């Protein structure tokens, strides 16, 4: 399968950022592991701290890829634009979060991604991404 992981704001700091919540492994190290483990898939990666760049990427891949794994990070809770982009494209989107957002602050309980996603995986640390990749192997 041709898949892409899209990470939103501050996820470039994984490994350094609040390790008690998000773990101490950097995303690039994790990505290398996962690419090897699922080497029968093409797994692309894109990260941006900028909302419009995430929308541009969704539009760019959203008519040709088999699956999108999206952690929109803080934009999950604010971005009507990203929600609309998911509605506009054809490729199914699986929403992932490292932390269990429902066990955290109230403002993290709202998602503009979930109503438009194929499914949602959250709370399993970086393994949330792996479970999302597995969901596209079914
Ligand atoms: C997050 C959860 C969001 O609430 C937060 O803003 C993030 C990361 C997660 O993966 O747990 O930046 O998406």
TrEMBL record:
Reaction catalysis annotation: 3-dehydroquinate = 3-dehydroshikimate + H2O
Domain of life: Bacteria
Site description Transition state stabilizer, residues in chain: 17
TM stretches of this protein: none
InterPro entries listed in its UniProt record: DHquinase_II, DHquinase_II_CS, DHquinase_II_sf
Location of the active site: 22 (proton acceptor), 97 (proton donor)
Binding site for substrate: 71, 77, 84, 98-99, 108
Keyword annotations: Amino-acid biosynthesis, Aromatic amino acid biosynthesis, Lyase
Protein name, per record: 3-dehydroquinate dehydratase
UniProt organism field: Litoribaculum gwangyangense
Gene: aroQ
């Amino acid at each position: 399968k041709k898949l892409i992981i899209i990470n939103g704001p501050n996820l470039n700091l994984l490994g350094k950022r609040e390790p008690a919540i998000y773990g101490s492994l950097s995303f690039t190290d994790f990505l290398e592991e996962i690419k090897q483990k699922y080497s029968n898939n093409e797994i692309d990666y894109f990260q941006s701290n900028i909302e419009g760049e995430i929308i541009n990427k969704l539009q760019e891949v959203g008519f040709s890829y088999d699956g999108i794994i999206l952690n929109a990070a803080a934009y999950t809770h604010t971005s009507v634009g990203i929600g609309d982009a998911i509605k506009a494209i054809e490729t199914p989107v699986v929403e992932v979060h490292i932390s269990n957002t429902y066990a955290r602050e109230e403002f993290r309980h709202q998602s503009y991604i979930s109503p438009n996603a194929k499914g949602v995986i959250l709370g399993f640390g970086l393994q949330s991404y792996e479970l999302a990749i597995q969901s596209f192997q079914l």
